[in-house]
Amino acid sequence: MRVEDVSVSFGGVRALTEVNFEAPEGGICGVIGPNGAGKTTLFDVISGLRRPSGGRVSLQGQDLTGLSAVKRARNGVRRTFQRTQVFGRLTVAENVLAALEWPRQNFLGDLAAWPSRRTLERERGGRVDEVLALCGLTPLRDAYAAALPVGQRRLVELARALAGRPRLLLLDEPTSGLDADQVARLREVVTGLETTVLLVEHDMGFVMGVCDRLVVLDLGKVIAQGPPERIRQDPVVRAAYLG
Ligand SMILES: Nc1ncnc2c1ncn2[C@@H]1O[C@H](COP(=O)(O)OP(=O)(O)O)[C@@H](O)[C@H]1O
Ligand SMILES: [Mg+2]
To answer: Which parts of the sequence belong to the ABC transporter domain (predicted)?
Structure first.
């Protein structure tokens, strides 16, 4: 995943200024920086929710810049949100099922595809079970998402994002609201993926433990990037963020 010269302004505020970095394929890349640094805005640009005033985003050589958020999601770009977004009136299992694609949803198409459609439904059910188990949500599969505490809602969002086997997974503050067991589960899930992961996170123990690479944002600019050990010792980063 590659971000080139991405800039975003909100009126007079430059949320991102010519941001450049590359997230290694199949690796976990952390994006850190103080509040207001532009981390969520960067995720919005990568996932297609916000059009940058300049710059490009590409994934495995494919330019995503002109694609809508929906098209990017279909192309394997999935994310979770700093403020969780789940379907409260659906159960946990239904939330995950709804995240899977249902192609050819018209009556004649359904009729023509009938036998294969049943196979497809079985496969989807199987995938839902798999992802729920991975995220430790099997006991909660029939609970309504609205009734869950924030930690569990975050895991539901993670399960939704994983269901379609994304090529790029963006996680915005995934440990926030999680208890120690849930953090351990999250860590296991994230480190076990073959997907490229981009992670915004304030929990430095978690970040240093899972990331192969870090990008540090401050006031919308990349002030450092590299392996976690180097970033930890970087004087500029310490001054701006780590203290
Ligand atoms: N929708 C918006 N309208 C105006 N300003 C915004 C909007 N979203 C973010 N900002 C501003 O852009 C900057 C970066 O915000 P954000 O990307 O949320 O930072 P972070 O996720 O690193 O805390 C901040 O100054 C914030 O106030
Ligand atoms: Mg944010």
So the answer is: 1-242
